[in-house]
Amino acid sequence: GDSVTQMEGPVTLSEEAFLTINCTYTATGYPSLFWYVQYPGEGLQLLLKATKADDKGSNKGFEATYRKETTSFHLEKGSVQVSDSAVYFCALSDSPIQGAQKLVFGQGTRLTINP
Amino acid sequence: NAGVTQTPKFQVLKTGQSMTLQCAQDMNHEYMSWYRQDPGMGLRLIHYSVGAGITDQGEVPNGYNVSRSTTEDFPLRLLSAAPSQTSVYFCASSQLSGNTIYFGEGSWLTVV
């Protein structure tokens, strides 16, 4: 079945450091790919998404490019802030029904940014 | 600007008790679903629905029951709570024609 693998956490960085959180996937079809963020005590929020190969999703300074050849969707940010501290989830949807989203999640990566 | 609303936010149950987690959305979304979040495992799909009167099982449905009598509501029932059901539960919704899922804020459930 479909699966998502994220880099192990936790990840601790200093403010203004460069961030990469690796995500690779296994899917039978052509999935849509997502990054969700969960701030402490809150639900999940969609951070960015890409629906086809070579698409780049971006939001709040974060970027991720859908790489079909390497089955990857790595999350990057050039200069992190303390407010970026959260848990980040990579996810895919390979639903046969358009929009009927059954997301498959990675295990999540906890990110802590120190001032 | 309610979005997806879950209640209760926190609940402690004794083993064998039953309860219902409520979920309501005000965006007229056809698709609704329930996930559970356990440490180190990400979120796993419990049940989902593509419209009123239609439900189906996800990855981990055992011990849970759902119904969808209206577009807005999608309650999750625990029939006889077990400690293995201690988890954080998230309700989510989306349009059938879109691919963005909106999540509620979560319900923290502890079974003792």
SSE arrangement:
The complex is a heterodimer of chains A (115) and B (112).
Chain A (H helix, E strand, L loop, with lengths): L2 E4 L4 E4 L4 E3 L1 E4 L5 E7 L5 E7 L5 E4 L2 E4 L9 E3 L8 E8 L9 E3 L3 E6 L1
Parallel strand pairs in A: 2-12
Antiparallel strand pairs in A: 1-4, 3-9, 5-6, 5-10, 7-8, 8-9, 10-11, 10-12
Chain B lengths: L3 E4 L2 E4 L5 E7 L5 E7 L5 E9 L2 E4 L6 E3 L9 E3 L8 E8 L7 E2 L3 E5 L1
Parallel strand pairs in B: 2-11
Antiparallel strand pairs in B: 1-3, 3-8, 4-5, 4-9, 5-6, 7-8, 9-10, 9-11
Describe this structure in words.
The complex is a heterodimer of chains A (about 120) and B (about 110). With about 120 residues, chain A is mainly β. Helix content of chain A is about 0%, strand content about 50%. Chain A contains no helices and 12 strands. Chain A has strands at about 5, 10-15, 20, 25, 30-40, 45-50, 55-60, 60-65, 75, 85-95, 105, 110-115. The mean pLDDT of chain A is about 90. Chain B has about 110 residues and is mainly beta. Chain B is about 0% helix and about 50% strand. Chain B is built from no helices and 11 strands. The termini of chain B are far apart. The mean pLDDT of chain B is about 95. At the A-B interface, strand 6 and strand 10 of A face strand 4, strand 5, strand 9 and strand 10 of B.
- Shape descriptor of chain A: globular
> From the alpha-carbon coordinates, what is the Rg of chain B to the nearest angstrom?
13 Å
Largest interface: A-B, 24 and 28 residues
Helix count, DSSP H or I runs of 4 or more residues of chain B: 0
Helix and strand composition category of chain B: mainly beta
pLDDT average of chain A, as an integer? 91
Rounded Rg of chain A: 14 Å
